[in-house]
Design goal:
Layout (H helix, E strand, L loop, with lengths): L23 E8 L19 E6 L2 E6 L10 E3 L4 E4 L1 E6 L1 H6 L4 E2 L6 H12 L8 E6 L10 H8 L4 E5 L4 E4 L1 H6 L12 E3 H10 L8 H14 L2 E6 L5 H10 L6 E6 L4 H6 L15 E9 L32 H14 L3 E5 L2 H14 L3 E5 L5 H10 L2 E4 L3 H12 L10 H7 L3 E3 L10 H10 L16 H6 L15 E5 L10 H9 L3 E6 L2 E5 L2
Parallel strand pairs: 1-4, 1-5, 6-12, 7-8, 8-9, 12-13, 13-14, 14-15, 15-16, 16-17, 17-18
Antiparallel strand pairs: 1-2, 2-3, 5-19, 9-10, 10-11, 19-20, 20-21
Length: 531
Amino acid sequence: MSSPAAAARPGTVPPGTPARTAPLLLRRVRLVPVAPRAGHTPAPAAPDAPVDLRIAGGVVTAVAPRLDPRPDEPVLDAAGRWAAPGLWDRHVHLGQWAGTFGRLDLSTADSAAAVLDLVRARLAGHPPGRPLLGFGFRDALWPDAPTLGALDAVAGATPVVLSSGDVHSGWLSSAARALLGLPAGAPGDDGLVREGPWFAALARVPSLPGADAAAGYRQALAEAAARGVVGVVDVEFAANEREWPERIGQGLDLLRVRAGVYPDRLEAVLAAGLRTGDPLPGGAGLATMGPLKIISDGALNTRTAHCRDAYPVPGDAGHPHGVQSVGPDELARLLRRARTGGLTVALHAIGDAAVGLALDAFAATGARGSIEHAQLLTAADAARMARLGVVASVQPAHLLDDRDVAERVWAGRTGDAFPFRTLLDAGVPLAFGSDAPVAPLDPWLAMAAAVHRSADERAPWHPEQQLGVAEALAASTDGQGTLGAGSRGDVVLLDADPLAPAATTAEAAARLRAMPVAATVLGGRVTHDAR
């Protein structure tokens, strides 16, 4: 435990950077021991009794049994609550997550017919001429198939844009296709637009008439803060490096944001001299340049993830092994360009074949970064990731939705699906996220999924891949260990001890899913207070 006079180590807020920070004295907190890296380094010790914690200039400057308030220093009495580093979500599409609050929820639909019923009911009270947006259908296990003709029969002249739950395809009416600049389809087609063409259309969706975007962002940020989240890596399909400083200037400032960039804007970002970790001008110390995001293959539910074995029923008949959207030569070019330009790389690779090609590109170029998702891979590839220092940026809550699909389309290989224990034991750093809106932006749900690997009465799915609660928590805190002098001034206060012993993994997971967040602190500012 640091003494009041101990000098703080350099914090993560760059010196001289205008930052939205505030002084704060946290009184009577119990520090949760958190390892800075899941499974590989022990958690720094935490005091046995409650302590006071001072935040100034965006960092923790002192921890002691008792600290006297300074003039004009706000005091937050934690009353013995547990304090952990603020939580991070390392993979979100925040604009799409914000947009879901006003969209038709399709997540309960178990057939194409059920989706059409939901669309028909919503259109009954929908403003004429305004596009209808829906989100969350998962068609891999449907007994019937979506068709353009069936959707047009319900939609009529109203543009209807329905996004799949994995955001790798969309079911669009003819009017929506025309509005978004997509080729017309035939009535008997399955109606789905997949991968690259869909992503291009998705980038145009925010410009359609509809809900107030700022209102969606306000709700999204408030809900994230209420779950203890202090930062995200945003890989939205947008000019994030420009748009986030603008949003922060408008008061949307409850989170730290690392702004990802896609290949179509890579040269513009490099020309601006932006490197990963650089503060973004006008970002008030909250927005920094993030990674280059590359989507190299498809997704599980769309059956387009690039796999070594063919799908029993491919999502795309022309690609029985899935879709490799970015070939090996282009992958190497992009990673080399990112490395020379000072950007890390967040490389989407879900299928085992895509993971292998991704690792080839990292090895050939010396680029640094992460494989995003890594949902199917062998122990040999996990060992290779560790040797290359590549981070596994994973979204544990996906396994709750995907276990049944995986058993059907990856039959015989699901022991290598969502292989968190394999990755961790191989020495691969784990970083948890949600991929919101594919899963809710809720780190406690992600931790529960990693610990128990089931969300219903069924036994855990491949329990040999379970993580412990302490390991899951460490993968959710962005490398911040036990709070101490020099830590970022980002704190989540909890009404319960997240590391309290549990009799079973089911009990531990239930506790995590219901974890009561009392308050969230960002750089000394209280962004959520439910005490």
